[in-house]
Amino acid sequence: MTDDRKPAELPSIDHLHRAVDRLQELDRILGWIGQERGWKPEALRALQVGWGNFNLPVRGDRFIFGMHDEHGQLVNLRGYMPTSSIKTVGLRGRPVMLWPCPERTWPTSQEIWLVEGEADAIAARSAWPLTGVTSVPGAATWKADFARRLARYARVHVLVDADDAGDMLADRAVHDLAAAGAHYELHHWTDFAGPVPDKYDLTDWIRDHPHEIGPPID
């Protein structure tokens, strides 16, 4: 009998690396997700996104990525599938972190964009590989400690989904960023895109503007 209170076991780094290599060989999956979300193979490789399951509490393989804390320690594994009723799921009893880990992925960037959802972070890396981007995994997963971690950047650009949950996330994020002494700028889709549909997000913007080489606002 298993103890449901015990955190699920983490995969080995070697197994994660194999999952990344496996995804790079799945041309059909790569072509599909490129059309579906605008993800590019080189971005998936750079962000160490793989393909598998690793005992996630859902059936079937999906896009998987490790979550690391600010010290670079692997603390969780998340799986994403855009066609699933449960799009994103993590290992039982494991914490949710900023992804990709800003300290590991963007250690020398002066500015960073904070977006909502790992899928938007991958789309951004695909479209703008030189732009520092990290994501809050979901609107309800924000932690005040994230603001402390982001305060090291010269400016934090906050750009979340155009819906009520996004508005609440933005309010919490800018409140905590201000408390942490961070220099931040909150962006609203209507400021530069005009009226947008409910739930409009960064992936939608990138789809609508395929020739843009950087974020919506300089």
Offer a concise description of the structure.
This protein has 218 residues and is an alpha/beta fold.
Layout of helices and strands:
Blueprint: H1 13-25, H2 27-37, H3 41-46, E1 50-52, E2 62-68, E3 74-80, E4 88-90, H4 102-105, E5 111-116, H5 118-127, E6 133-136, H6 144-150, E7 155-158, H7 164-179, E8 184-186, H8 189-193, H9 202-208
Parallel strand pairs: 5-6, 5-7, 7-8
Antiparallel strand pairs: 1-2, 2-3, 3-4
Describe the structure.
The protein has helices spanning 13-25, 27-37, 41-46, 102-105, 118-127, 144-150, 164-179, 189-193, 202-208; strands at residues 50-52, 62-68, 74-80, 88-90, 111-116, 133-136, 155-158, 184-186. Helix 6 (144-150) packs across helix 7. The chain is α/β, with parallel strands linked by helices. The termini are far apart. Strands 1-2-3-4 form a four-stranded antiparallel beta sheet. Strands 6-5-7-8 form a four-stranded parallel beta sheet, sandwiched between helices. The chain contains nine helices and eight strands. It folds into two domains: 13-90, DNA primase, catalytic core, N-terminal domain (DNA primase DNAg catalytic core, N-terminal domain, Alpha-Beta Complex), CATH 3.90.980; 102-208, 3-Layer(aba) Sandwich (Dna Topoisomerase Vi A Subunit, Chain: A, domain 2), CATH 3.40.1360. Helices cover 36% and strands 17% of the residues. The longest helix has 16 residues, at 164-179. The mean pLDDT is 94. The chain is globular, with a radius of gyration of 17 Å.
